[in-house]
Design goal:
Blueprint lengths: L1 H4 L17 H4 L5 H12 L3 E4 L2 E3 L3 H20 L8 E3 L21 H11 L4 E5 L6 H7 L5 E8 L21 E6 L5 H18 L4 E6 L16 H11 L8 E5 L5 H15 L16 H13 L1
Parallel strand pairs: 3-8, 4-5, 4-7, 5-6, 7-8
Antiparallel strand pairs: 1-2
The structure holds zinc ion (ZN).
């Protein structure tokens, strides 16, 4: 929120209070046992969901609001007279590791997937681009066999949770609707920009995308203490600048995922908020010269084969 306040575009922003997600909406992508388990841990006052995912007495309410925020954003943008460019959901906890059956990796519910599934059920063609440093394994699992939703992830490898190989490309009718670009440590923004330009933007267009979600983890920033990528805040703004115009005005929702350096996520939030209303704010230069081009080359070869 401090980053958004420092974006210099506060006058251009409309603030929305999120509603809470309903059980029925959660159950679009998660099974009943996951919901019951999270509710039971909440009823006990908190506890551990996996080795690194802990709930306190407020976590369930926060997770319901985080997922509800994405739905609120979609509902607000979809109002016929909205006149809004895009939405930015500044939420915690993140969601992209939560699978149909398991809360994991700090994620209780898959906020982006819940909203994407609701739109797909309403007949929309949805794309999700995940540039968090970690692979969005939960989102991938939820839509792996679902041709209505395109999922593209650029993430560090090796890194938690260990999924997201180049060869994971969807199954059944959805082969090619999952795109993974697992880049090495120290990868810089130029490699991501190339992957977007040559592979992911064309895929979003070919999908006939009507709604776009960005799983915007800011843990790919070079200052992040738990990852090893080489991005700057300017790179994050560039990703948004490239992706959002691929869909119609008012049809993109950028959602915070991970990010563990407070200054970095403040700066990234500032430049992304500015970018979303068409203003160019740069607090540091874009990056280039790191490794990772060979992975983009390999992904392009795979995409051309199908
Ligand atoms: Zn992450």
């Amino acid at each position: 929120m401090e980053g958004v306040a420092r974006s210099g575009v506060a006058d251009a922003l409309e603030r929305c209070s999120p509603r809470s997600i309903t059980d029925a909406e959660i159950l679009r992508v998660h099974d009943q046992a996951l919901l019951e388990h999270v509710a039971a841990v909440d009823a006990a006052g908190g506890g551990r969901l996996d080795s690194d995912t802990v709930m306190n007495q407020s976590s369930l309410a926060a997770a319901r609001l985080a997922a509800g925020a994405v739905m609120t954003a979609v509902e607000r943008l979809a109002q016929p007279d909205a006149g809004l460019d895009a939405a930015f959901c500044v939420v915690r906890p993140p969601g992209h590791h939560a699978t149909p059956t398991q809360s994991m990796g700090f994620c209780l519910f898959n906020s982006v997937a819940i909203a994407a599934a609701a739109l797909a059920d309403a007949g929309e063609k949805v794309a999700i681009v995940d540039f968090d440093a970690h692979h969005g394994n939960g989102t991938q699992d939820i839509f792996y066999e679902d041709p209505r939703v395109l999922f593209a992830s650029i993430h560090q490898s090796p890194l938690y949770p260990g999924t997201g190989a180049l060869t994971e490309r969807g199954s059944g009718a959805a082969v090619g609707k999952t795109i993974n670009i697992p880049v090495p440590p120290n990868t810089t923004g130029d490699v991501v920009r190339r992957a977007l330009d040559e592979l992911i933007v064309p895929a979003i267009e070919a999908h006939g995308t009507t709604w776009l979600f960005l799983s915007a983890g800011f843990d790919g920033h070079r200052a992040d203490p738990i990852t090893e990528l080489g991005y700057s805040s300017a790179d994050m703004a560039d990703y948004v600048r490239t992706l959002v115009p691929v869909v119609a005005r008012g049809r993109s929702v950028t959602v915070l995922e991970g990010g563990y350096d407070l200054q970095a996520i403040t700066d990234c939030s500032a430049v992304v908020a500015a970018q979303l209303v068409g203003e160019r704010l740069r607090l540091e230069p874009a990056t280039s010269g790191g490794p990772g081009d060979a992975v983009v080359d390999a992904a392009l070869v795979l995409a051309a084969e199908s």
